[in-house]
Amino acid sequence: MDVASAKLIGAGLAAIGVGAASLGVGFVFGSFLQSAIRNPAASDGQQGRLYIGFAAAELLGLMAFAVAMLILFASK
Amino acid sequence: MAAGPDIDPMHQFVIEPIFGSFGHNNPFVFTNSALWTLIVLGTIWLFMFGGMKRELIPGRWQVAVEGLIGFVDDMVNVSIGPEGKRYLPWVFTSFVFLLFANLMGNMPFGIISAAHPFTVTSQFTFTGVMSIITFAIVLGVGFWKHGLHFLSLFVPKDAPFIFKIFITPIELISFLVRPFSLGLRPFIAMFAGHVLLDVFGNFVVQALNAHSAGGIGITILCFLFIMFVSMIELLVAAIQAYVFAILTSLYISEAVNLH
Predict the structure, then answer these.
(1) Is the pTM of this model over 0.90?
(2) How many angstroms from the chain centroid is the CA of residue B181?
(3) Minimal-distance CA residue of chain B relative to A55
(4) What's the CATH superfamily of A3-74?
(5) Cβ-nearest to B189 among A52, A62, A69
(6) What domain range includes position B32?
(7) What ipTM describes this predicted complex?
(8) Using the beta-carbon criterion (under 8 Å), do A52 and B250 form an inter-chain contact?
């Protein structure tokens, strides 16, 4: 296998991480909704924490995207 | 690779000189990045200036500006506490700059003329410097207020001794990674969205050039997808600015209040 095709396969494998992060983001919003529907009065105060959790989960997906881009365009 | 023109999604992020050139010993070049930074700052200035007339009965514009300030003020007060007012200027500046820069980068000015918007926040230099400023504030405030006692931020308070040995290095590494992750997040989010839009925009043109029934179908599908992604991008632009601001106030709050 030459380096160019190995690079493409590697970038494709790195993109799996983006899908894994989507599970995390879905879990954050899903569990927020579950508890917010049980107690709607308290949900407004937790918006900040919701977005902090969202940011932490999303960051790992963005990292996976960055790794894929580095493999594709930055590695010689 | 498939036949046909190459898709080059990275071309939109190239910094090109407008006046001057990248020659030897010439660091002062007016680039497209500088131009769009000035445009973003000018837009912010116009927006804020129009709403700061301090009329007794506020008009729509003043309500918009005061609502924005009140939103950030609430966020800072909730996360930092009574001392939050001091740190409002930086949190508000970073929030408004990121919001306007992200949104301006998504504007379809390319339809009117050849002036495609350049997203200044799609460069790590910009967001990286913003996160460096945030952590300069965090370290400065932390060491100035608490002295060397600031280092107790890394030690969990009410934990058994054996836990403290393991948790403290993890907390330290987590703190060291934060400036990197804080700046990386808005940059990658903008970068990824623009690459996606560029790739699918190329698909529209290439499928239209195929001159077949299947090509037309792919064109329509890709075009609908672009519209969907553009709306998501507007949402992401606002969310990333909000996340940067709320994480900044959270980190400052840790430095001010220690736990």
Answers:
(1) no
(2) 12
(3) B243
(4) F1F0 ATP synthase subunit C (1.20.20.10)
(5) A62
(6) 11-257
(7) 0.80
(8) yes
